[in-house]
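Session log. Operator J.P. requested a structure for one protein chain; no other inputs attached. Running the standard single-chain path with token output.
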Amino acid sequence: QVQLVESGGGLVQAGGSLRLSCAASGRTFSNYRMGWFRQAPGKEREFVAAIPWSGSTTDYTDSVKGRFTVSKTNAKSTVYLQMNSLKPEDTAVYYCAARHYTSHQYDYWGQGTQVTVSS
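Structure written below.
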């Protein structure tokens, strides 16, 4: 059974930092791309960042470039999202997801972790 479990969310003041973790289990993810998404209240879910398990080419949405960093630890099957210089508009539920290279959509999703940035 595939599981993606996020952790690390919380309440932080603007300008602060948080590191989200996504522990992946239940299968081999070497042929998957791991993504982070977020959904703010009343808004659609949006892409934040992504990284392949095999490789290092990262991708970010423009609003987080230079502030967020996605990384992974293959040995621990964990993906991270380091978030610095947080802004109130970063407040959302953050989700981890996995997409096989041959798939056009993300196949597996975590339950989400809340990030709240106060002004």
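Operator note: The two ends are 40 Å apart (CA to CA).
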